Amino acid sequence: ASAWSTLRWIVFAALGFAVVVATSQFFAVYLANSLVARVMIEIQNRLAEHLLRQELAYFEGTQQGEFFSRLTNDVGTTQIALNVFFTDLAIQPLKLFALFFAAVYFSPTLSLSLVLLGATVILPIRYLGKKIRRRSRKRQQSAADALGAMQQMLSGIRVVKAFHREDYESTRFR
User: Fold this and answer.
1) Gap between the Cα atoms of 78 and 40, Å rounded
2) Measured distance CA(36)–CA(43) in Å, rounded
């Protein structure tokens, strides 16, 4: 009976640990994506303000298509780089270290059990990943709205400059 209770304790501990890992993974990715979204909004706001402060000659020398191409590509590339940094380079090594330390601390037998029960971690991560993707789509829609507002602002830059409405447009964009 003692061996069964020990085995039961190990299974429940492993399942509890899997729940903690899955929950930690969800919050780590959620917080990283939230931080990236905030940084991207700030970059877009500063970019819009910077463009509004440019002289009119700056806009006459360059086609609008080039502006939008640069905005879309540069901001998108920055977002991808920040996502890779915060979700992969910052989180994964910490998670690996914590899991390795916990497994070795308890015992090699528990380490093997954790490897075998690793599938219990995969299912919650897949479920939470779907939620994260849905929220990501919402953020992309917000980014598209911001890009549309910037397109409107830049297409009417002559009017904005003529009536000295840079501050108003900057506030409206935010």
Assistant:
1) 8
2) 10
Phi then psi for residue 56, to 5 deg, are -60, -35
Q: What angle do CA 69, 72, 74 make, to 5 degrees?
A: 95
With CA atoms as reference, report the closest residue to 17 among 145, 115, 127: 115
Both tokens of 131, joined, read 């939620």
Amino acid at 91: I
Q: How far is the C-alpha of 155 from the C-alpha of 135, rounded, in Å?
A: 30
Helix axes 91-106, 108-116, angle to 10 degrees: 130
pTM over 0.85: no
Residue type for position 65: G
For residues 83 and 36, the answer to whether their CB atoms sit within 8 Å is yes
Q: Where are the alpha helices (DSSP H) in 84-118?
A: 91-106, 108-116
Whether 161 shows a pLDDT value over 70: the answer reads: yes
Q: How far apart are CA 108 and CA 114, in angstroms?
A: 10
Provide CB contacts within 8 A for 70, sequence distance 6+.
none
Residue 173 confidence (pLDDT) above 80? no
